[in-house]
């Protein structure tokens, strides 16, 4: 029996590699004759850069940058040789003559993971740290950037990152605004692009939300970043004004309605407009980069999961997308999640919530590893 073990992270509880390791140990105990192919998944958020970098034996670097609220924090990124990528991943990125690719995730420098619930407020967060990671990568020889945008704490249309990359933000009197976040947007009257050319940027993104509107960045993603309902209209109006300033600065046509432009508080819009960045489907790229199709072909059983499995898990997210691909190939799938809010699992999938009823969230997060081990071991013991 050959098993593909491919977990995404259990947010705030287990990393994807940790979840895969726990599953691997459980299988080794219960079914020592089985062969395990461990393949941690990444969705553009936490773990995206480290997982993809490690998969092609890239170089890992860590530096101090500014976090989403301006406090210093350590963040890492990867440097990889594009020629080491599987052909399908290289073709999707379409990087041309690039020789060194930086793999960066917003979650490392500008992510919700670094803030307490009380600190989450999109009016007072920015993406400067993400821009600083890109700057460091360029200084280290990168000539292209792959940016994962999951798990961001920001809604600054990428202005923080752009200013870190040389853009200037001016007040009406011509003075510079040093730190530009939405709380200070009322002072901003003009944006001036930097003089240094920006590298080729590819944004791994699985959302199709535009920048503005009912499905836009503020309306859909603002609440999870701390946006109060009574502030939505004001943030939406200011976002529209700032987006126009970004476009005017580079003479770029309106990209506000572009699918995916609203990703990560509009950083996708900022880089699409200012750097001619391209969006690439996140899970499709990860699947090709990790050569999941070949691993799936060889598997007799697929074991996957994440912190919460719900309807959105079947709309392009890693474990859900993998499960649907496995079902298409008539492979049995076991899905384990901390919480489940899906009325019915796809045909061919067994869906298990690992958290015992009545467990508080802090307890569930602290004991996720033990519960994953227990529920998977129980399921393995039942298999004939």
UniProtKB/TrEMBL annotation:
Pfam families named in the record: Gly_kinase
Gene3D superfamilies referenced in this protein's UniProt entry, alphabetically: Glycerate kinase, domain 1, Glycerate kinase, domain 2
MF terms (GO), sorted A to Z: glycerate kinase activity
One biological process term in Gene Ontology: organic acid phosphorylation
Endpoints of the signal sequence: none
Keywords per UniProt: Kinase, Transferase
Domain of life: Bacteria
Family: Belongs to the glycerate kinase type-1 family.
Protein name, per record: Glycerate kinase
């Amino acid at each position: 029996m050959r098993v593909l073990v491919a977990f995404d992270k259990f947010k705030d509880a287990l990393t994807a590699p940790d979840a895969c390791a726990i599953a691997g140990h459980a299988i080794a105990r219960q079914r020592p004759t089985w062969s395990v192919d461990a393949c941690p998944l990444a969705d553009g958020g936490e773990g995206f850069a480290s997982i993809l970098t490690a998969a092609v034996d890239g170089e890992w670097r860590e530096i101090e940058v500014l976090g989403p609220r301006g406090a210093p924090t350590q963040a890492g990124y990867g440097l990889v040789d594009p020629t080491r990528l599987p052909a399908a991943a290289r073709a999707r990125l379409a990087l041309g003559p690039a020789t060194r690719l930086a793999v960066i995730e917003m979650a490392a420098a500008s992510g919700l993971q670094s803030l307490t619930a009380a600190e989450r407020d999109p009016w007072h967060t920015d993406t400067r740290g993400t821009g600083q990671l890109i700057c460091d990568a360029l200084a280290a020889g990168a000539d292209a950037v792959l940016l994962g945008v999951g798990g961001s704490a920001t809604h600054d249309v990428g202005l923080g990152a752009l200013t870190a990359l040389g853009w200037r933000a001016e007040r009406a009197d011509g003075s510079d605004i040093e730190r530009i976040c939405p709380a200070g947007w009322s002072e901003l009257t003009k944006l001036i692009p930097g003089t240094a050319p920006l590298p080729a940027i590819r944004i791994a993104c699985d959302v199709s939300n535009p920048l503005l509107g009912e499905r836009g960045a503020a309306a859909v993603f603002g609440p999870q970043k701390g946006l109060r309902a009574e502030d939505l209209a004001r943030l939406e109006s200011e976002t529209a004004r700032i987006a126009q300033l970004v476009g005017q600065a580079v003479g770029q046509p309106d990209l506000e309605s572009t699918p995916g432009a609203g990703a990560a508080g509009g950083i996708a819009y900022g880089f699409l407009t200012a750097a001619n960045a391209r969006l690439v489907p996140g899970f499709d790229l990860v699947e090709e980069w990790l050569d999941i199709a070949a691993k799936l072909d060889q598997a007799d059983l697929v074991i996957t999961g994440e912190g919460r499995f719900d309807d959105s898990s079947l709309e392009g997210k890693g474990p859900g997308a993998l499960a649907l691909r496995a079902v298409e190939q008539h492979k049995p799938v076991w899905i384990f999640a901390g919480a489940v809010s899906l009325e019915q699992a796809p045909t061919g999938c067994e869906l298990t919530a690992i958290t015992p009823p009545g467990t508080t969230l802090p307890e569930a997060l602290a004991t996720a590893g033990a519960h994953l081990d227990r529920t998977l071991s129980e399921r393995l013991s039942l298999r004939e």
